[in-house]
Design a protein that fits this description.
Elements (H helix, E strand, L loop, with lengths): L2 H8 L1 H20 L2 H35 L6 H35 L7 H28 L1 H4 L4
Helix pairs in contact: 1-3, 2-3, 2-5, 3-4, 4-5
Length: 153
């Protein structure tokens, strides 16, 4: 499997994962149940971990595309996708970090949610990360899928 194929094979994990984590955190906030909240927080942290290999496979994928010199690859699209990917990684790692802090704070306190402000912070950071991840995925699709960028003309 070449670098581009690997990147394409795993790149949907954090995109779909952060969307599911956002829904789980919002549901946990609404239901205010300890087990549900813990699961949502751990899911958010897991998605943040899954985003790392996706990000790290991006540069080798770009290098592979350069070596095979596909005629319809636009370097500007790659650079735009790369910039958003960096921003997406920062936001998804922040969401995962906030989720871990909230999880361990709750475990240390050994009680149900007594202060929902941290959970709201996780939820907001998940929403932001979801939006940025979706835009990053859209830009990635435009690199070599003409059907993805025809609508932008």
């Amino acid at each position: 499997m070449n670098a581009a194929a690997l990147h394409l094979a795993i790149n949907h994990l954090p995109v779909v994962g952060i969307l599911l984590a956002t829904i789980a955190v919002a549901w946990a906030y609404y239901k205010n149940q300890t087990d549900l909240t813990d699961g949502a927080l751990l899911l958010t942290a897991l998605v943040a971990v899954l985003a790392l290999p996706v990000f790290m496979s991006g540069e080798p994928a770009e290098e592979f595309l350069k070596t095979i010199q596909l005629l319809d690859i636009d370097g500007t699209r790659i650079e735009r996708h790369e910039w958003f990917a960096t921003f997406a990684l920062i936001t998804i790692e922040a969401a995962g970090g906030f989720a871990l802090i909230t999880y361990f704070q709750r475990r240390h306190q050994n009680q149900a949610i007594h202060d929902k402000r941290l959970l709201i912070l996780v939820m907001v950071s998940c929403i932001v990360a979801t939006a940025i991840m979706m835009r990053t995925a859209q830009l990635g699709g435009q690199i070599h899928h003409s059907e993805a960028h025809e609508a932008n003309r």
